[in-house]
Amino acid sequence: MTNVFNFSGGKTSAYMVIHYWKPGDLVIFTDTGREHPKTYKFIHDFEAHENIPVIKISYKDSATPFDTLLLEKKYKAIPNRMKRICTIELKVNTCKRYLRSIGIREFNNFIGFRADEQLRVSRAVQKFKKVYNKYPLYYDGITKPIINEYWANKPYNLEIPSILGNCTLCFMKGKNAIINILASYPELAEPWVKDEENAGGRTYLPGVTIKQLLSIAQNNLFKDKDLNEVIPAFDCACTT
User: Fold this and answer.
1) Which of 178, 187, 182 is nearest to 205 (CA)?
2) Where do the CATH 3.40.50.620 domains begin and end in the chain?
3) Mean pLDDT, residues 83-110 taken together
4) Whose CA is closest to 105, among 140, 143, 131, 78?
5) What span, in angstroms and rounded, lies between the C-alpha atoms of 67 and 32?
6) Which residues pair with 108 in a beta bridge?
7) What pTM was estimated for this model as a whole?
8) What local confidence, expressed as pLDDT, does residue 50 receive?
9) How far apart, in whole angstroms, are the C-alpha atoms of residue 153 and residue 124?
10) What was the pLDDT predicted at 125?
11) Helix 210-217 and helix 189-198, axial crossing angle in degrees, nearest 10
12) What pLDDT score does 236 carry?
């Protein structure tokens, strides 16, 4: 049976691939178009150093998949924590469509949940028939300190804090995390602000706009925050 590795472009999923991948297995990165530029650099460095091919796919083969999805929805269904159309369409369904296009309907689905992420594993649901979720890091006792120690000794690394993984200002990171991110990276706000302006009052987070969070972030209280200490408010299925 085919093994499919979910590669998010982060250190944990990269560790999983390096330690469990075998020739013939598939490593898939589903691009949202809202990743940090250094995530894409890390994926490039990963392929060059590990000699493991990464299959890069995107929603309808778009160069800007997140934007494409919102335009198709005419901004009437902007993603939020209750309606995660981005995760469903840009990640899950895009991957399923690709695998079906190459004749794969039954496979082992490798997900990078660690041993210190028991809640994520317990909440995970076997959503699809003939798709068998595997959590090798969890069952082998691999924790975040082990991951960090491993990458500290590698000739390349992900050059951003983990909170910047996946979509840069994903609503699942929560208001406080987004404020802290924008304090250091205000330039990341632009596409998210435009999304909300086009959405007729709809917002990614309840009761507050990204533009308002950007304004709060300019307060000096946030500018010296170590982003390595910032954690997301909610678990996201995109983080594998």
Assistant:
1) 178
2) 2-162
3) 94
4) 131
5) 9
6) 3, 132
7) 0.89
8) 97
9) 32
10) 65
11) 150
12) 58
In angstroms, rounded to a whole number, what is the distance separating the alpha carbons of residues 66 and 73? 11
Query: C-alpha angle 145/87/226, rounded to 5°?
Result: 35
Answer for the pair 17, 84: CB distance below 8 angstroms, yes or no: no
Instruction: For residue 86, give the nearest of 122, 58, 124 by alpha carbon.
Output: 58
State the sign of the Cα–Cα–Cα–Cα dihedral 142, 148, 150, 156: positive
b/e code 178-196 from CB counts within 10 Å (16+ = b): bbbbbbbbeebbebbbebb
> Nearest Cα to 3, choosing from 112, 113, 109, 93?
109
Residues 6+ apart with CB under 8 A from 185: 164, 168
Q: Match 């809640």 to its residue by tokens.
A: 119
Burial, 65: exposed, middle or buried (Cβ in 10 Å; 0-12, 13-18, 19+)? Answer: buried
Start-end of H helices in 6-72? 11-20, 37-50, 65-72
**Could you give the percent of the chain with pLDDT greater than 70?**
90
Question: Helix axis angle, 65-72 relative to 189-198, nearest 10°?
Answer: 10
Pair of tokens at residue 12: 């944990």
What is the second-level CATH architecture of the domain 2-162?
Answer: 3-Layer(aba) Sandwich (3.40)
Whether residue 4 contacts residue 108, with contact meaning beta carbons closer than 8 Å, is answered with: yes
SS (H, E, C) 102-166: CCCCCEEEECCCCCCCHHHHHHCCCCCCCEEEECHHHHCCCCHHHHHHHHHCCCCCCCCCHHHCC
Looking at 155-219, list the stretches that DSSP marks H as alpha helix, in order from N- to C-terminal side.
Answer: 175-184, 189-198, 210-217
- Report the 10 Å Cβ neighbour count for 48: 10
